[in-house]
Specification:
Chain lengths: 183, 192
């Protein structure tokens, strides 16, 4: 069972491109459909928590699936399986890349890639804002957060703490959450 | 002590990294800038490599930054590998602790209005974190000329309008970069 857990998450870690969100359907197929380790409803509840909790979503998912099935040892097997492929691949690349980086061809390729990466980060913002239910009334929150980090060099950690406290304070004052208010 | 610094930084990133890969980028950026572990260019290169290789961005960058920070500080190759072990396990540790607790109490947490309220405003604010990550990377290091702006625009609209796959876009941008800058770089290389 431990080896199966390790193997399942190793496979998912080794073959899913795009990280957390992309791997959820794969985990579901393996854990719920193929092996029947966890019931579907419970899986969906826990996935929602894995996304809301801090940390890497893939790791969060591995922790709860592993722990549900085989306790602490299951958790370790699943997390190790999920992390090991990326760890090895990146280490390999890191040790080669530091040597290749100064080659003119590599440098030329990366000169094209760098602005592309920035675009890849910026492009999904609008869709994410829609799914997080940002409205005209709450738009100032992400805008202010971005400005504080970008221009004032404020630590994102502080922004996160303040955002959580503001959300809790809102509930205390209005008795309901901000997103309910907006609906 | 570099290992301790890496541990504290990546534990913090794991603990406050809400909202998945791109939101975590802005936290990693802040730590890198604070300690001067690498340049903004090198960091973008890691994000590019992370996109093209399997695995979560958080793990990929922790592994890479841990290795690179040690190497830059003059550690040997194996000591640098240890650095990437430290960084990677530190970013995982908070997840493990928090998810273990959450697993125990999740039924009570699920409908708790305080938790829901905190998370609601967090979800909105995290968008700003991602925007900041993009803005912080819009520097002269990564945008060197008008070609950069063109590459940016093509990938931006390629993602937005055609939902093109990120790996395809990175490969195309790399080929574009080779076509535009290849002859130039080779020229400079030969002069040395």
């Amino acid at each position: 069972m431990l080896i199966q857990l390790f193997y399942t998450f190793f496979k998912i870690g080794a073959f899913t491109l795009g990280g957390g969100y992309a791997m959820i359907p794969l985990v579901q197929r393996e854990v719920v459909d193929n092996r029947g380790w966890i019931a579907e409803q419970e899986f969906l509840d826990l996935i929602a928590l894995a996304q809301s909790a801090p940390g890497i979503i893939a790791v969060n998912t591995a922790v709860f699936v592993g722990y549900k099935i085989r306790g602490i040892r299951g958790m370790l097997a699943a997390v190790l399986g999920a992390v090991l492929p990326s760890f090895c691949i990146i280490l390999l690349i890191a040790s080669c890349f530091t040597r290749f980086r100064d080659y003119p061809a590599v440098e030329a390729v990366f000169k094209g890639i760098r602005p592309a990466v920035v675009a890849l980060i910026a492009a999904p913002l609008y869709k994410m804002a829609i799914s997080a239910r940002v409205t005209w009334r709450t738009l100032w929150m992400p805008v202010l957060a971005a400005l504080l980090i970008w221009r004032m060099n404020v630590s994102p950690v502080i922004i996160i703490i303040v955002a959580i406290m503001a959300g809790v304070a809102f509930v205390a004052v209005k008795g309901k959450t901000g997103s309910q208010q907006d609906n | 002590m570099l290992y301790l610094q890496l541990f504290i930084s990546f534990f913090k990133i794991g603990l406050f990294g809400f909202g998945g890969g791109y939101a975590i980028i802005s936290l990693i950026q802040h730590e890198i800038e604070t300690y001067g572990w690498m340049t903004s260019q090198e960091f973008v290169d890691i994000v590019a490599v992370s996109q093209m290789t399997p695995g979560p961005i958080g793990i990929n960058s922790a592994t890479y930054v841990g290795y690179k920070a040690c190497l830059t500080a003059g550690y040997s190759e194996w000591m640098s590998v240890l650095g990437s072990v430290v960084a990677t396990s530190s970013i995982i540790l908070p997840s493990v602790i928090i998810m273990l607790i959450v697993c125990q109490v999740y039924l009570r947490l699920k409908d708790n209005k305080w938790v829901a309220g905190g998370l609601a405003s967090l979800r909105i604010t995290v968008i700003g974190l991602i925007a900041a990550a993009a803005l912080l990377l819009m520097t002269g290091d990564n945008f060197i000329d008008w070609w950069s702006v063109i590459f940016f625009a093509l990938v931006f609209f390629g993602t937005l309008l055609f939902k093109a796959h990120p790996i395809l876009l990175i490969v195309l941008a790399g080929m574009g970069g080779y076509a535009v800058y290849g002859p130039l770089e080779l020229d400079r290389f030969l002069k040395f």
